Amino acid sequence: MTAETLAHAFEPFFTTKAVGEGSGLGLSMNYGFTRQSEGHARIFSEYGQGTTVRIYLPAHFNAEDGPAHAPPAPAATAAGKGEVILVVEDETLVRELVAEVLRDLGYQVLEAHDGPSGLHQLRVPQRRIDLLITDVGLPGLNGRQVAEAASAERPDLKILFMTGYAEKVSASQPFASPGREILTKPFEVDDMARRVRALLDGGAGR
User: Which of 76, 168, 175, 183 could link 72 by a cystine bridge, Cβ 3.0 to 4.6 Å?
Assistant: First the structure.
């Protein structure tokens, strides 16, 4: 890697690939998992020669080797319990990353690439959806409009907005309401996982 690439390799959503050519190595997800597990990750790279990624994780002790009551890793508190989450995001890379992280945590995930398709998912009769994650700046039918339409039909639905402009909307309705949170892009995957778990633990929507 070049020095510039190396400096950004662990950042969420960073990739050197063009749109439609994949999302790279998913290094931000690996870094997030490692940090959730109270570990650390480092990249050793020499341009034109090769790259090594090293993950350092805490040692595990069984009952005979160490303490019987080791504290749980932070990831355990963010783990899913089979809840269904709808992710509405027009940027394919971001949507796929968020969906993959949530599935790895144990959630069931539905995906939509724009507002209308997200509402279609929400309006399927008898479909369980516990949480809506939507980008605020969707083209056409934006995230705020999706949330309002969804809430009209599912009043108890929990909503997590994703935006790069949280400082401008955090104090306004309908963003600052009970059962709703704002996540600023770019974000760490462990922060997203904690927000999701906190919203769901406050009472799941249907």
Answer: 76
Residue 125 has pLDDT above 60, yes or no: yes
pLDDT for residue 145: 94
pTM, 2 dp: 0.62
Q: At 201, list the tokens.
A: 């633990």
- Tell me, what DSSP letter sits at residue 44? E
Is 171 within a domain?
yes
Same domain, yes or no: 127 and 163: yes
CA distance 107 to 132: 12
* Opening angle at CA 185, ends 52 and 8, nearest 5: 25
User: Domain residues for 28?
Assistant: 3-56
Distance between CA atoms of 116 and 167, rounded to whole angstroms?
26
- 146-170: average pLDDT: 83
Give the CB-side neighbour count of residue 48, counting CA atoms within 13 A.
0
